[in-house]
Amino acid sequence: MIGTWLARTVVQKGWRFLSSVLRLPMFVPHIAAAYLFWLLFTGTNGIGWFEANERNYVTVILTYIWKETPFVFLMMLGTYEQLNRGYVEMAKTLQLSPFDQFKHGELPFLMKPLLDSAWILIAFISFAYEVPALLGVTYPKLIGVLAYERLSTGLYLEATEPYAVALVWTCLVGIGVFLSYVLTASIRRRIERGVRR
Question: Which residues lie closer than 8 Å to 21 by C-beta, 6 or more apart?
Answer without folding.
Answer: none
